[in-house]
Amino acid sequence: MFETLPAPKLDGIIGLMQAFAADTRADKIDLGVGVYRDAQGRTPIMRAVKQAEARILEQQDSKSYLSLAGDAAFLTTMEALLLGGAVPSARVAAVGTPGGTAAVRQICELIAKVRPGATVWVSAQTWPNHGPLIAAAGLKARPYRYLDAEAGALDRAGMFADLGAAQAGEVVLLHGCCHNPTGVDLSPQDWAEMGALLERTGAVPFVDMAYQGFGDGLDADAGGLRHLAARLPEVLIAASCSKNFGLYRDRVGIAMVVVPEGQRDAMAATLAGLNRQSFAFPPDHGGRVVSTILGDPMLRAVWLEELDEMRARVQTNRRALAEALRDASGSDRMGAVAAQQGMFSILPLSEAQVTKLREDDGIYMLWDGRVNMAGMDPSRAGDVARAVAEVMR
Ligand code: PMP
């Protein structure tokens, strides 16, 4: 039956992880895969997670099925984390999902239910899995301009000009914060302008929030999302707890929809039905860890302290690399990296230059020049910058 099935191309990131593991050079640097790393290169289990897990291990007395939406405490604590009371709970429907990936997929399935084949506008550079997830639900991705590659900043005019053509019944996908892969975010003014554009066009925003807490802090990072939620009748949300709780492999995500008053129950039942037809019950363990932490002032404080440490480390690395790049290249374009947010930035490198850095210098990054700031110790910033400047000469 499957003898003619072609092997799909190996996912670029997975291939890069394998190549890095196989590289025997002691001074190799992994700026590729998008996970947080500490100064020792480890992705640790957060202290609050360990404590919450110990509590769950001791107290949990059943692993029987829960509802299709998952643990109610997870849904309400995540609603508060994301929306911060910007809209009444009576306007919010949500379900747990296996990671942010499945949250994106479930929201795409939801769109396809009412608008088969609908257009989803995506920033020209975006998380490489957005396109396949949109296509898998039978929707069409259409790019809008985003990064001004020369300036390393937002192409504001290009973005708003392109999205001016969005129409009612179409969807605009936005990164809540810490844009992957560019590190270029919308300012509060940009979010306000985006709100006005969406109001005018009737297109519906879809906010993907995968790095809340890694930019300017939990509340500031959700500021754009909250502005849209307070202003517009409908907002689609996919959020991930992989990065900010370090729960990557436990698969913790949430698909959430803000609806007009009176429509919540129908939306909640629809989202539950979509879960039923793809995986039925979302995984519980990681979600329970999250609700245990968010619901307990002591654990929450422990979590916030460590999240702050992680954000600070990423920012220290970012500034160190930006400065070293400016010094090594003599160009301010590289200095723009300092103003970007979150774990990622795109360095203006060709695929050939990226390959050369990997082969000659043992510096691993994604083929489009995306670097993960957490993958490097600040003491290596000079090495990275010199190699990058050399390859660009
Ligand atoms: N959206 C974006 C923008 C991401 O970068 C990621 C993780 N790389 C996700 C969603 C999904 O993350 P996960 O499924 O691991 O929670």
From TrEMBL:
Transferase found in the keyword field: yes
Needed cofactors: pyridoxal 5'-phosphate
Catalytic EC class: transferase
Short name of one Pfam family: Aminotran_1_2
The keyword Translocase appears for this protein: no
The organism's place on the tree of life at top rank: Bacteria
EC number: 2.6.1.-
UniProt keyword annotations, A-Z: Aminotransferase, Pyridoxal phosphate, Transferase
GO CC term (a single one): cytosol
Gene Ontology BP annotations: L-phenylalanine biosynthetic process from chorismate via phenylpyruvate
SUPFAM superfamilies registered for this protein in UniProt: PLP-dependent transferases
Molecular function GO labels: identical protein binding; L-aspartate:2-oxoglutarate aminotransferase activity; L-tyrosine-2-oxoglutarate transaminase activity; pyridoxal phosphate binding
Residue ranges occupied by any Aminotransferase class I/classII large domain in the UniProt entry: 27-386
Family affiliation: Belongs to the class-I pyridoxal-phosphate-dependent aminotransferase family.
Subunit structure: Homodimer.
Protein name: Aminotransferase
The encoding gene: tyrB
